[in-house]
Amino acid sequence: MTKQNSAARTRSVTLPRAALLLSGACLLAFAGCTDEVDSAAADAIAAPQGVVQMAQAETAPAEAPATQAVTPAAEAPAASGSADVEALMEEGPLPDVIIGDANAPVTIIEYASMTCSHCADFHANAYPAIKQQYIDTGKAKLILREFPFDPRALAAFMLARCTADDARRTAMIDVLFDQQGEWARAENASAALLNIAKLAGMSQDEFTTCLNDKELQEKIVETQQRGQAEFGVEATPTFFVNGDKYSGSLSPEQMAAVIESHL
């Protein structure tokens, strides 16, 4: 990936800690939304398979549809830097949710913002194939860490953390990315987020309680600040693959080449 292309596929505005914490008033406004669920929005959100996975997460995850195998790029993109793997894996403000085998030889850490279009692009166009070819086969594991750019992203991350378990959190993250256009730029984002939360099994009261959780809000902001201060994260998505740093929405072929270089 050229430097120009990489810049075009990242979002690189970081809000200071105080600005994100001051967004608490915005989150309170989110929590005060109506108990009514807009039927049109609910129909739009209910369609993706991720919602079905949320409903089934307590029993067994839904079987993923077959994805075409990825042929790794002839050459992996150059890393823009690196970080100490042990430092990256140290316990942070919030527990990591590991997707895949915890003992997989390749560790992918992604810093993302829920309102980042390039993050959504990666999860729509690269992640399914990478998951099937490398994560589901025990070759790699993925850890997604919160790096919110704005109050809506912060609220979405909070709601994902307030789900019943890790499986539901992962499924909700998938739906939030898949339906990003339905809530991230909506005039009434609170109603759209409430629709998703209810489909994940969250009540109106639980929705309100979650967005009023100051401790959770602090920990998500601390996760963002740690990524920036300790590991130099300045844009989303930013990936660390066994410590090597890549910024931008890598294609399936590029990510496959990076993973293969560590196997």
From TrEMBL:
Residues 1-31 form the signal peptide. The keyword Acetylation does not apply. Gene3D superfamilies: Glutaredoxin. Residues 65-263 form the Thioredoxin domain. Keywords: Signal. May be required for disulfide bond formation in some proteins. Belongs to the thioredoxin family. DsbA subfamily. This is Thioredoxin domain-containing protein. It comes from Aurantimonas aggregata.
